[in-house]
Amino acid sequence: MPTIVLEEDRSLRLVEVVLDPPVPPEQTAAFRDYLAHDLPDFPAWRDALRAKVPDLCPADVRTVTSQEALRESLPGSAVAIVESLEVRAPELAVADRLAVVQKFGTRTGNIDLDACRKRGIAVCTVRRRTNVAVAEHSMLLLQALVKQLPLINGLVTVERLQQEGRPYRPLDTRHTANANWGRIGGLRTLFGSTLGVLGLGEIGSEMARLGRGCGMHVLYHQRSRLSSWDEAKLGVGYCAFDELLARSDFVSIHVPSNAQTRDFIDRAAFSRMKRGAFLINTSRAEIVNREALVEAIDSGHLGGAGLDVHYREPMAPDDPLLHRYNVITTPHLAGGSRLNALADLEEMILGISRCLR
After folding, report:
1. Disulfide engineering: 3 pairs with which of 60, 152, 298, 326, CB 3.0-4.6 Å?
2. Average pLDDT, the chain
């Protein structure tokens, strides 16, 4: 029975459910319920995956939450699955049977690749579909705001226009086209505008690629600047936090939630943003100060906001962020279908199995 050391992560807990059959029944039941709307028969999917990797199932899966716990669990382990924990000289020194290091993502800065190569330890990565989906959803919110989709959706009859307080006045089509016959003002174009990405991790990088694909200038800010080679590859430019706020037409948040990032976007930050700029948050609600956000929207300084994460989930029906054309709220689903996470997991497990064989 192979031993797998697993960095604690709510998504990665599914590895235990699939590969470690003695896992508590309530954990399996929780995932079955979590996946049910996209995968009605989770046990069948799990059993089919188990059948593909008889060398990995059953496995002894040991979940760790710290660097010290990782080192303590590595002796005798064949596989380590990590996201942010490091696999370097101190870890490899005690990893007497380690054959595979699986990165839960694509960036391997926390893994000593040369040392692993010398030891004959395979290092695997996965481009997480969930991360791609979050970036797609962020761009969807951005595009829906700039094109005023909440306002114009269904605004295609004279009656609908009048209900919105927009009397219909026909254009003189003898001389002009009939485009925008509803006379909706304030529409904007992404091409040539500036997208500021806060946090150019794996999701932020996916967002930068989408922005570049729309012809946007992409700026980013984070604690550690990328190499010039990585910046050129993504087509992004680095700048200080205040400069990013001042130059960006759209600010998209992709930093983790922690003590340093709580209320990261506060009144002072909003005051530095361009008047009419848009804010996108698919990371965590508490990164943006709630009162400052409402004030910035009410004053008109903020052109609009796209929010997939909220200060209370589900939201209260009288939340001041609801029922506005320039604020789009979605129910924390940017990661898309649960099948994204399942496909990521299956790719990792099959890849680990191949490496062990």
Report:
1. 60
2. 97
